[in-house]
Amino acid sequence: MSDDCGHARIHARVRDSPRLGPWVIWKLSHGKERRGRMASAPDRSVLVTGASSGIGYTVAQGLRARGYHVIASARKQEDVQRLSVEGFTAVQLDLANSASIRAAVEATLAHTGGRVYGLFNNGGFGQLGALEDITREALRAQFEVNVFGAHELTRLILPVMRAQGQGRIIQNSSLLGLVALKYRGAYNASKFALEALSDTLRQELRGTGIRVVLIEPGPITSRFRENAYRTFERTVLCENPDTANRGRIERWLNDQGSAGWFTLPAEAVLAKVIKALEHDNPSPRYFVTTLTYAFAFLKRALPDRALDALMARIQA
Ligand SMILES: NC(=O)c1ccc[n+]([C@@H]2O[C@H](COP(=O)([O-])OP(=O)(O)OC[C@H]3O[C@@H](n4cnc5c(N)ncnc54)[C@H](OP(=O)(O)O)[C@@H]3O)[C@@H](O)[C@H]2O)c1
Fold it and tell me: Is residue 265 situated within a structural domain?
C-alpha cells in the first residue's frame, strides 16, 4: 500500500471517530484559535517517541504521574513489552521505517479515540565522527531517524490536531541544533534541520491553535553517549579502524571535561516539556542546562572566528 493510502486511512479514522462527528470536526477546524487552552483531562493524550530509555522514558513517566494519557513508543518490541508491563499504553515505532510510523499512529488513535493533544518528538541518536569519515549512508541514516522520521510522524498527527483545533508539537532538539561542534557534524546537521523545520512549521501553523515548541537540552544523563559510540564503531570504525580521529572521539567519550559539570538529569527536560504542554502561550524554544544558555548567547554575540577560537580551546 502506498504512503498516501496509509495517510488516508489514518485520517479516515479521525473522521469516523465516534467522538468527532463531521459537524464537530468542522467546528473545531474552523473555530477561532484558542491559544494554548488546555484540553480537558480525558483528552490529554501525549505520544512520546524513543520512550525506551533516557529522556523519553523519564518524560513518559513524569507525564503519566501528572495525569496525562501517555502513549509510550519504542523501537524494539522487547521495550514495548516492558513498557506495557509497567502500565503504559505502549506502541512500537521505528522512526527509520515508514510502515512502522503509520502503524504506530493508527494504534495510538485507536487507544485515544482519535485524539492526540501532544506529540513529543524525542527518539533519536547521535552519529559521531569527523565529517571526512562520515559516509553518505551514515549521514542518510542520521537524517532518516532524527529528521525524516520525526517529520513523517508529525505530518500524520497534524490532521488530528487540526481537527481538534489545538495541539502541541514538541521537538527534542539540542544545544547542538544551535551551535556546531567538531566530530558531531552529522548529528549537528540533523538537529539544525529539525530547528529549521520547526521554525517553519511554527509560522505555517500560526492561528490554528497548534503550537510548535523546541526543547534545547545541553548534556543530559542518559545512554546517549554509549549508544553514539556503538553507532560510531558500526558505521565508521568498521570501515576505517585507523581513522586519525578515533583517539579524539574516545577521549571525548571517556572524559566529559567541563560539560560533565553542567550535566543535568532527564527530569530537567521533563520540566520544560510540561511547560510546552501546559503554558497558555508556550515559548518557541526552551533551553535546558547552563551550557545551552551560554552557547546560545555566544552564538549570537560573537563573530564566527571568535566562536571558532573559543570552540577550539574548549575542545582541544
Ligand atoms: N543526552 C543528551 O545529552 C542529549 C542532549 C541534547 C539532545 N538530546 C536528544 O534527546 C533525545 C533522546 O536522547 P537520550 O539522551 O534520552 O538518549 P538515549 O537514552 O540513547 O535515548 C534515545 C531514544 O531514542 C530512540 N531511538 C533511536 N533510534 C530510534 C529509531 N530509529 N526509532 C525510534 N526511536 C529511536 C532509542 O531507542 P532504542 O533504545 O531502541 O535505541 C531511545 O529510546 C534524542 O533526540 C537526543 O538527540 C540528548
Answer: yes
